[in-house]
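ARCHIVE RECORD
Type: protein–small molecule complex
Small molecule: adenosine-5-diphosphoribose
Source of inputs: curated submission
Record status: active
Notes field left blank by submitter.
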Amino acid sequence: MKRIVVLTGAGISAESGLKTFRDSDGLWEGYNIEDVATPQAWARNPAMVQQFYNERRKSVLEAKPNAAHLALAGLEKAYDVTIVTQNIDDLHERAGSTNVLHLHGVITRSQSSLDPTLTYPIDGWEIKMGDKCELGSQLRAHVVWFGEDVPMISKAAQICQKADIFILVGSSLAVYPAAGLVNYVRPEVPKYIVDPVIPDMQGGRHFTKIEERASVGVPKLVRELIENSIKS
Ligand code: APR
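STRUCTURE (tokenized, with ligand):
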């Protein structure tokens, strides 16, 4: 079965009502993202950071997967699909995708503030100050903050190197190391981008550009790929 790798960004969840980062002039629920998503912010004011992510988690739990998430889940019928997402929502999983790699963590889980490899499910929408991990340290959102390591990046790069088809959906490619993944895809591999505002990128000329919203462009592309797989 051909391997498809889909790299998704905030744009795929925009039509599910979750704000993107750079479209909403960089403000996240009124906060400057760099002021809340950093270890320094946590050290300075953990309760504020906790509340910020609790609010984000509530909107994620209220959001629904859209036609783009659902179409990508359906692609698994005809291809070996890996979703590499920069998003911290769980909409790909709730749409039915079974192979999702979260580069920046996932907001529906908590993690030990001492050991990021210790993660836990969250009962409900909030992590309270005083909720502790097994090491006795405060629990925080299982999200990679600016300046922290991206532990999944090398696995994601290996996956991109093995792609037979590569699809980029809804990312400005503004943040590394995620943005650098496109360079791991072999030159001969067909590449597609779905975004109403196609971002500048190295090698962009090799991408088939679908200048549409994800909920329109992704289902169309998936239908075409499934037809191709039937014909071949
Ligand atoms: N359908 C498809 N794409 C869309 C839609 C839509 N309905 N609406 C917006 N977009 C596109 C925008 O044109 C843009 O290219 O989604 C992209 C959103 O870019 P960003 O807001 O920069 O989001 P993303 O690329 O995911 O950011 C990467 O930056 O802030 C950090 O860690 C955070 O994971 C995030 C990373």
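CURATOR ANNOTATION: Residues 9-11, 14-15, 20-23, 33, 86, 104, 170-172, 174-175, 195-197, 199, 213-214 surround adenosine-5-diphosphoribose (CB under 6 Å).
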